[in-house]
Amino acid sequence: MNCNKEKYRIAMKINKMVKQLSCLGISIVPFIQCHGQNNPVSQPNIIYIFPDQMRNCAMEFWHNEHFSKFINFTADPVKTPNLNRFAEESIVFTSAMSNCPLSTPHRGSLLTGMYPHKSGAMLNCNSDRPISSLRDDVVSISDVLRNNGYECAYIGKYHLDFPTPNDPQNPGHYVENRDPVWDAYTPPEKRHGFNFWYSYGTFDEHKHPHYWDTEGNRHDINEYSPKHEADVAIAYLENKNNERDATKPFFLVISMNPPHSPYHSLNDCREEDYKLYKDKSLQELLVRPNVDLTMEKAKCAPFYFAHVTGVDKEFGRILEAVKELDLDKNTIIVFSSDHGETLCSHGTSDPKNLPYTEAMNVPFLIRYPGKLIPRTVNYLLSSPDIMPTLLGLSGFKKQIPQDVQGYDFSETLLTNKVKNDIPNSVLYIKNIDGDKNEEGKVISYFPVSRGIKTLKYTLVLTINKKTKALEEVLFFDDEKDPYQMNNLDWNDFPQERKMLLSELSGLLKKADDPWFRERILNEFISY
Ligand code: CA
Fold this sequence. Notes:
Arylsulfatase, C-terminal domain; ten-stranded mixed sheet; alpha/beta; four-stranded antiparallel sheet
């Protein structure tokens, strides 16, 4: 008889008995821990929580001297008590960056450890862009973990599939009537190892979200989405409805939509969270020198911050459940976001897809009790690094796929000794629609901007779509000018320019980026 099967059968029997006793008001702490094949006790659970469009500076603990000494920006006037506590127990990154600060491209890199042109997710997915969709043949972190005995769950926004007419409730139709279609249903064969599913493509009504579950049933909910998703996550942790095989470790991803827009009224956020900000003036809320308070968007600030507090509250509930279930010791928990939010900086109403720090810089906090010493670090971790780092931390360094392009920070994080080959720059990527076919569908993408960000500088080059000639240079001294208000003339800084272009060339080559393959701007960049 298969020993593991037998162990599992006994564990399930005990589990059932514990539940029955619990119904009678008798509480039992299970004394047997049973793990399936290839799952020694040391393999940690992983919970990855990432709200959408959350600025790194929108966390209250940055005001605390213990953290503020590491940063050169003013933190937003937000209330995030749960993140404040979590930060004290975590490694807190000051300078984690989203390379291509947009929903789909970041999510593709997060799951695959590859840059957007390799993951297949180079533009935000919608039905006009068949060119952009997470590749079926790519190996994602969830594929690796699933193949190594993990239970894998995805809750919330996915936004990685090209929408097709595959509505499970209305076969042959899209899941929505918009043109182009943005929302999507991800069928089981496209879920990359996630065997618990409660998700949607993209849909922005925070108090009326919907989800498709593992079997493809649709759930329409009239509740603030972070609250609902936390409830589903907590039920998963408790294994309330037998969501998972409790004998196995789990990988749980929770992708909350707020503080992404809409953030215009109480139709979008909870009143209890909005109350904290409603009486503050715009000057008190938008505290940076690069903000234009006359912008229409400025009025969104109290609602944006209400979402931040709402997300924090639900994050806190999940942390509490982890603790109550005694899962905290052997669980890696990450809090991050897919990109930032400019929130009225630089006179732009575009919150993201821009090379400004406020669009690229994301929260990144990681807690692994007993393994990672809580501290604040300025490592330039970027989107493709997350997958290999998590696999490295979980003991799957050897299972990191060969074609992963990100850097594995796990050794540096575990030993607290900075390795020599640690990245000292990150690539900035902006793609736009390329050619269209007769039906108006986008069949190629155009790599319009590439750039480099170091701890001191941002340098971004933009080319003309027709001629591929240099059209714009953005060059900031981020140390002296953290709000990026002064675009320097790169001719005044020949040494820095040379050094940054050389470093950029290396990044483009390593990424096998289209700029490297086509030798774009080779009069400036020596490939
Ligand atoms: Ca997003």
